[in-house]
Design brief:
The protein is of the alpha+beta class and 131 residues long. Helix content is 16%, strand content 37%. The radius of gyration is 14 Å and the shape is globular. 27% of the residues are buried.
Length: 131
Amino acid sequence: MAKSNAIHVAVGVIENTDGAIFISRRHQHLHQGDKWEFPGGKVETDESVYDALCRELQEECNIQVTSATPFTVIQFDYPDKSVILDVWHVHSFTGTVHQREGQEWRWVDRSELEAYPFPEANTRIVDLLAK
C-alpha cells in the first residue's frame, strides 16, 4: 500500500502509427537515474491527471495530446519514496516528438521493451504492454 505522502505522477505511454513506444533515459543524477522511463511528471494540486499528462508531455516531449485513455494505476514503495503512477495510453498527438530535457530517447517496439532497464515501479507497465 502506497504511503499517504506518495508522489502522484501522470505517465504517458506514447504509441506512434507504427506501434512503437516512446521511451527516454532518466538523467543519472535523478532518482532511478540511467534507467529508461515512459515520459510524464507530477500531478500538481488542483490539476486533473489528464491535464497533468498533457502539460508534462508538451514540456518534455514537444507534443499536444489529442487522444489518450487510462491504462493502469500502479502504487509502488521504493525504500526512499512512494509513487502512484497514473498511466495513460496516448493514441494520437500533434507535433514532432523529441526529448526537450536533453535525455537520450528512442522509439521501441513493444516486444523489445523488456531489454531496457526500467525503474521497478515501471515493470508492470512493460508487462502489460508485452501482452
